[in-house]
Structure formats: C-alpha cells, structure tokens
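name: query_chain
kind: protein
chains: 1
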Amino acid sequence: MNLIDATRDLQQYLFQYPIERLAESEARSLSERLHAVLRGHNHRYYVDDDPVIADVEYDQLYKALEKLEERFPDLVTPDSPTQRVGGAPLDEFEKVEHPQAMLSLSNAFNADDVRAWYDRCKRGLQAALDQEIEPALTAELKIDGLAVALTYAGGSLSVAATRGSGLVGENITHNVRTIRAIPLAIPVSQGPEAPAAPERIEVRGEIYMRKSEFDQLNERLAGQQEKTFANPRNAAAGSLRQLDPAITATRPLRFFAYGVGPATGTMPASQHALLERLGAFGFATNEQTKRFTTLDEALAYYEYWVDHRDDLDYEIDGVVLKIDDFGYQDILGFRSKAPRWALAVKFPARESTTTLTDIILNVGRTGVVKPEAVLEPVEIGGVTVSQATLHNEDYIRSRDIRIDDTVVVKRAGDVIPAVVKVVDENRPGRGEEWKMRETCPSCETSLVRLPDEADYYCMNAECPAQFIRLLEHYASRAAMDVEGLGSKMAVLLAEQGFVHRLSDVYRLHERRDVLENLEGFGEKKVQNLLDGIEASKQRPLARLLFGLGIRHVGQDAAERIVTGFASLEALEGATQEALEAIDGIGPITAESVVDWFKLENNRLLAQELRNLGVNTIRTEAETPVVVAEGEGGEATVAGKKFVLTGTLPTLARSEAKARIKQAGGKVSGSVSRNTDYVVVGESPGSKYDKAQELGIATIDEEGLLGLLATAD
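structure:
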C-alpha cells in the first residue's frame, strides 16, 4: 500500500473508531500504523522535499499518536515520532570515543593536484595487484556543515556524536533526535523491498542548514532581540551545541549521509552502492553525487560546481573525490590523518578588498613571531574578517604591503584569511615601508632569524605570550590531557601569576585556598582541576615529550624518539647523530631536540618535572621488543606486519593494536603482499577476502594471543 492510501485508511479508521474506545490490542496495531505513516511523511517532507499531504493533516495524525500514547503509556518507544524532543537540558556534553577514527581529508586546489593524487592511487593499486588499474571515482559535493556519526543498534538511533578531534567527539544524541531529516529507526519503509538494517551500524554525514531557512532563522532571532549567526555553518554548529534540545528543535537543521563507520553484516562493495543503500534505509543522500569512470569527467564535474555553487540552497566549499571500489580503498589504506583513497578538492577562495589599518605581531608557543594584518572589517563568504595572516617579513616586503593600503583579502580554502596583494600600490601618499621589530613584543627579548628560515623567533622560554600557548598545548588531550585545564584556564593561570613555568602546574595544590576564592571558581572546580593535574603525572613519556612543545617534535616524532631513549634524562645527553639513527627522525628534528636540551632553563624544567612526580621514564607499552638473531622463528611478533578486521571477542581494537606494537610488531590499515598476518574477528570485511586472494596467513584472536605470548 502506498503512503497516500495508508494515510487515507488511517484517517478513516480514526474517524470510525475513537481512541477512547480502543482496546489495548487495537491500540498497539494503530500505534504501529501511525509510526509507519508519520515516518513516511517525515521522509517525504524533510528528505525528499516532496510532501504529499497538507500540514494540518500531518498534525492531526501526530496528535492522534500523542493521544494514543497518553492513554497507553506502554506504547511509547524511543523511536516514536512523538519522542523527537525529550529530556531535561544538559549541564554539559559527554565525551564519546569513536570506535573508528573520523579522519580528515587531504586537500587539493587545482587540477594538477588532483591528477597527482589519482596517479598515486593508480601506482599503489598497480604495485599491490600487479596490473594497471583505472579506478572509477565517486564525486560528492563537500557540504559546509558539521560532521557527525550516528550509531544505530537494532535499527534504532542510540548515539549521535560530533567529529570532535576525530578520535573523541561530543554526545549530541538529544539534539540530533530533534532533526526530522534523521530517522530514529531504520529502515524508514517497512515494505517487502526495504533492506534489513544491520544489527549495528554507524552512519556518517553532515548536518547543515539551508541558506533560505538560515535567513528566516536570522530574521526571527533579530525580531526577538537575540544574537544572529554569521553564516549557515555557524548556525548549524551553534544549534547542535545547545544544552537544551528544545532550542535545537526550533532550528531548521538538515542532514546528508555520505558514508559509514563500523557496521555488522554484509555491506555494499562500493561508495555509490553504499549511498544507494543508505538512501534505502531512509537517509537523505546528496542528489548531485555522481560516479565517473574517468578522471577527466570528475574534473569537469568540479569545474561545473565552481561556477554553479551559488545555485544551490546550501553552502558547499568543494568537491570530494573517492575511489569508488571499497576493495581498492582497502589496498590504498590510510596515512596518519587521512585516507589515501579520498581527496577534498577545494573551490578557489573567495576574495574581497578592504583597508589594512595596522600590522601587529603574534608570538606562538614555539616562539615563532608572525605578523598579522588588522583590517577594516569586511564580509567574505558570509564571515566578517577583521584580521588576516601576513605570513612573514619576506612575504610583506615582496608585495610591498604597508599600513593604510587597500588590500585584497582571501579566505584560503574558504577558511583562513590572508592578505594576498595591494590594490594600486603605486598611488601617491602611501605609508612608510614596514620593518620587522628587533625585539619580542611580549618580553622585549631580541628576536632571532634562523638560517634558511623566513620566520623570526623569541628564544626566551619564559616569554609570557608563548608560555600561555605552550601551557594550552601541554594540557591538551594529545599531550598530557590535563582535565580541567583548557584554553581559558591556561590564560587565567598565566595572567594571574599562578603559573610561570610548566612545572608550576604541579605546585597549584599549594595555592588551593587562593584558587577557590577566585570569581567563577569553587571547591568542586578546583578539586577537578587538581585531580586532572595529578592524573597527568602518569602519562607515557612520548606524550610528555610532545607536550614540552619542542619545535618539529609532533606526536609521531615523539613516539619514535622514545623507542630510542628510555627516559627524559637519557634524552638530555643525546647527540644529533644518535637521534638521526632512529627510524623516521631527520636532521631538522634531531637538531631541534639537541638545541632544546642545550638551554639551562629547559634542563632545569625536566629536573623539576621529575622531582614533582611526573613520569619521565619510558613505559612498558612504549618499550620496543628486541629479538635476538635466530630467536623466535616464524612465531615472532617483532618486525611483523599485522592487519585487523572484524570485531574481536574480548580485545578492543585499540588494545590489540597496542599489544602488537608493544611486542615490536606493526599494524597497518590495509592488506598488501607485505602483510604477515590478518587478524580476523566477527563480521570481517573485504580485508579478509583480500588476504585469501593474496594467500596471507589469517589468525583469530586466540592465535594472536598465542603469538603475543611468545613475545612475553
């Protein structure tokens, strides 16, 4: 029965049989029919943009369901259309760890970048399959919204989370339930052709706001004397981060699905087929998505949308190209922060002209001093820009940029504002040529320009400006993860004089009484901060090394360095040659580490951290396993390359990876001829098929634990 006929039958049934006279069995049947019809109309209105009944008819059916559930409370289910808005306002958002990282995408800005990426993909496939491959591409519009992950268990929406850092997001389930474009249960249609929902699936996509509905929202907010939003993306993000879901329910939020995370059962074998499956489940997928068999076709698609982006009723900032075949995606795998099989091709940045009123200097956490333009505020792509980067002294001089000039400002990648050139630079009456100052604007220490670098540095480790940023970095989740010590707290502690050096963080318990008397503080807030500081003492050595803010030492470099040095004390005496001997550590990073430890203040800081109880010794999990020559045979883990697929019975994916690395093994995201073992869990994906095809050894969790036991 089609939706219109089902609606008419319901309307007639409700007319003939008042809800007050229904028995419980009749009420249950009616509830199921109302659920199905209301979901269908929600989908037609919010996903298909093609309503088939008047709003007043929908409201009558909705009120009938409300009345039915009021009389029979046991009929209320979490996925009922009446449960879109529910729950008291939250005090704060809970953190959610993504079961599979939500990675960012590598960017391209022109056709040459895209061709280079596609050629790399072809070379990678040829090396793995020993044949030339011209992989098909799926091209999708890059929606300028907020990425979210929606987890469905047993067909019902259970958790919705923001992307956040990619590893950890915020739980926004209460708010997402208010968005009628997102189904509370899948599939929306219960007909014979509807696909069965997996027992568990994470659907990923973008929450956004249409431009027309954004304008209406701003008009309404202005009429209520409330703050308006700068652009649709900000409006969508701000609406999702409301602690009260009732407020989110009043915002016109939409959703496009573009992929999945972890999922049980058999899934389609390609991106375009996956999007068709998501559409069958009831999700909105972007109708402009196309599949192309050649790169030239995909590039033509991109060029079309460069010129027609404003024809759409929603903001886009580029096109995403993906290798369509999931088997090929598995072969290509991932870099540390992005998949190799996908690319975001950004649109040319939007530009505008304005007056440059001043040039100021900002000091970063590593001491780098960057010039920044102060501008007469100008709107670029819906965002008001009042400051923009000038990069460095050479950049300013090569373009002869001066105060009071009229300049062109570009939002590079539609995000970061930059001054790109001067308008009418030869006109008379220009200001004086700009010159870099000789001392730090924060501490007046003489600035140093290092050989072969364009930037100037303040070398004073106790410079107030760089220290605030260093403190923020040290306390960040990727470094020492000091709960309660965020950006605002870092500024307050530094500006109020509570913290002058990183080691002072671990002396804050001595000033507890003073902290509790500060405005906005209290016993509980201070206790949470002190507990977070105490917990940070046990972080692994690599995270401490990263947190110290040594130039060129990122997370990966810190982890590599720790494999070669068992403690911070050992690292103090390291030579550049010894550091360069570590796999992946080059001369620039090695020199930077050696130079950092040459400074007496830094050596004193390392000693203070040790004395204050901070762990400065390599943990067992960070210690590489050394296997003597001739030992271990085929069963050794050290040096072997593992790939994990499916859900393991007892080990979490992160724990399995950590134990393999601790035993000296390597973990990869894709199967190749160089893979030694594929660890197979429940519901394995295409990696298992690839292992079978290449003849790679497959083991289950018990087999993995057996191998790990030989390494103990």
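note: The chain is about 35% helix and 20% strand.
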